[in-house]
């Protein structure tokens, strides 16, 4: 058989290889971001945890912390909250949050129902702080170092596996 | 005649007002309004399928429009605005990818593929040695 008859099958085999990799091995939670290693874009948001208080980028310095972007209207955030409570209570890692385009009254009801894993909750009414982070949707979680720089971005629900294999080892190294 | 002049003045005022307002965003000069229109038409709605943020009603598209409006008001250049977006969302966010080391393959691939296709076509249409012999 001439080699030229094998070529189309060879190309097809390679394409199927790419498809297989993207379907089963692509890390959908780890979306590349040009913001990795960069300081947070300055922001000042009303803190929904305390009346008359604000949440700014300065709150995220001096300790390694998580910055979670969420909303009460986000179903995946309901699934994620037990893990965030566990991180707060068992691992003692501070979690700050940006509440993306939400209603403060709904936030209070939501926190009473599911618990409050957050040190501070920034009320991002316009969604512009979320855009500064390059958000696609909720939830998304960022690991922030002591200098207030973004080290890692996790897209989607943060589960025990991602915590054990990626985020917690990274935080332990930094602490 | 006086009424006609009044009507023309009114129409001119309305036209000017429209030129400086795009999708509810108010601009102080028509150049900024034109820049906003052009930029939003070239930025991909990252949560939609092949739509620009100008054509999309997705909440994130509206947020990105607001950000572009704010950056224009802050007197940022088109280059600054595109850099801001690419840093956060990657080259993917630009509907017309920029020509740089990350996109060389993207821009040149059609040309390479065309050359290869011509080469294959040429080889196939050439008479083979056996047919020459016969």
Write a brief structural summary.
The complex is a heterodimer of chains A (175) and B (134). Chain A has 175 residues and is of the alpha/beta class.
Write the layout of secondary structure elements.
The complex is a heterodimer of chains A (175) and B (134).
Chain A lengths: L5 H19 L19 E3 L7 E3 L8 E6 L4 H17 L3 E6 L3 H11 L6 E4 L3 H6 L6 E5 L5 E6 L4 H15 L1
Chain B lengths: L1 H18 L1 E2 L2 E2 L3 H12 L17 H15 L4 H12 L14 H22 L3 H5 L1
Antiparallel strand pairs in B: 1-2
Helix pairs in contact in B: 2-3
Structure description:
- The complex is a heterodimer of chains A (175) and B (134).
- Chain A is an alpha/beta fold.
- Chain A has a single domain, classed as Glutaredoxin.
- In chain A, 39% of the residues lie in helices and 19% in strands.
- In chain A, helix 2 links the parallel strand 3 and strand 4.
- Chain A is elongated, with a radius of gyration of 20 Å.
- The N and C termini of chain A lie far apart (62 Å).
- The mean pLDDT of chain A is 91.
- Chain B has 134 residues and is an all-alpha fold.
- Chain B has one domain: Helicase, Ruva Protein, domain 3 (Orthogonal Bundle).
- Chain B is 63% helix and 3% strand.
- Chain B has 6 helices and 2 strands; from the N terminus they run H-E-E-H-H-H-H-H.
- In chain B, helix 2 packs antiparallel against helix 3.
- The model of chain B has no long low-confidence stretch (mean pLDDT 84).
- Classes of the chains: A alpha/beta (175), B mainly alpha (134).
- At the A-B interface, helix 4 of A face helix 3 and helix 4 of B.
Tell the overall outline of chain B: elongated
| Proportion in β-strands of chain A | 15-25%
CATH superfamily of chain B: Cytochrome C biogenesis protein
Mean pLDDT of chain A: 91
Major sheet: arrangement of strands of chain B: 1-2
Which series of helices and strands of chain A comes N to C?
HEEEHEHEHEEH
Count structural domains of chain B: 1
Task: Note the total helix count of chain B.
Answer: 6
Helix fraction bin of chain B: 55-70%
**Average pLDDT rating of chain B:** 84
CATH class of chain B: Mainly Alpha
The number of domains of chain A: 1
Task: Please give the radius of gyration of chain A in angstroms.
Answer: 20 Å
Which ranges of chain A are low-confidence, i.e. pLDDT below 50, for 5 or more consecutive residues? Answer: none
The helicity of chain A comes to: 25-40%
**Count of distinct strands of chain B:** 2
- Percent strand of chain B: under 5%
CATH superfamily membership of chain A: Glutaredoxin
Q: Would you tell me which CATH topology of chain A applies? A: Glutaredoxin
């Amino acid at each position: 058989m001439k080699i030229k008859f094998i070529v189309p099958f060879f190309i097809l085999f390679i394409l199927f290889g790419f498809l297989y990799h993207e379907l089963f091995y692509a890390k959908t939670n780890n979306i590349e971001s040009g913001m990795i290693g960069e300081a947070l874009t300055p922001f000042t948001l009303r803190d929904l945890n305390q009346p008359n208080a604000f949440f700014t980028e300065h709150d995220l310095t001096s300790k390694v912390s998580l910055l979670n972007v969420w909303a009460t209207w986000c179903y995946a955030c309901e699934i994620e909250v037990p893990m965030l409570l566990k991180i707060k209570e068992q691992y003692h890692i501070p979690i700050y949050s940006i509440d993306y385009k939400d209603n403060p009254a709904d936030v209070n009801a939501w926190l009473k129902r599911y618990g409050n894993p957050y040190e501070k909750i920034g009320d991002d009414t316009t969604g512009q702080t979320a855009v500064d982070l390059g958000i696609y949707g909720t939830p998304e979680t960022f690991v922030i170092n002591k200098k207030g720089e973004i080290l890692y971005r996790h897209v989607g629900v943060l589960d025990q596996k991602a915590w054990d294999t990626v985020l917690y080892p990274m935080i332990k190294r930094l602490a | 005649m006086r009424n006609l002049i009044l009507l023309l003045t009114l129409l001119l005022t309305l036209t000017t007002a429209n030129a400086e307002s795009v999708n509810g965003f108010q601009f102080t000069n028509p150049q900024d309004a034109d820049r906003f229109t052009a930029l939003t038409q070239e930025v991909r709605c990252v949560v939609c399928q092949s739509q620009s943020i100008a054509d999309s009603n997705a909440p994130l598209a509206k947020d990105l429009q607001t950000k572009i409006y704010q950056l224009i008001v802050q007197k940022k250049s088109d280059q600054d605005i595109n850099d801001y977006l690419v840093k956060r969302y990657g080259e993917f966010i630009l509907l017309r990818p920029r020509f740089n080391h990350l996109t060389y393959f993207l821009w040149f691939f059609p040309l390479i593929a065309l050359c290869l296709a011509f080469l294959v076509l040429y080889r196939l249409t050439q008479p083979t040695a056996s047919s020459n012999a016969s």
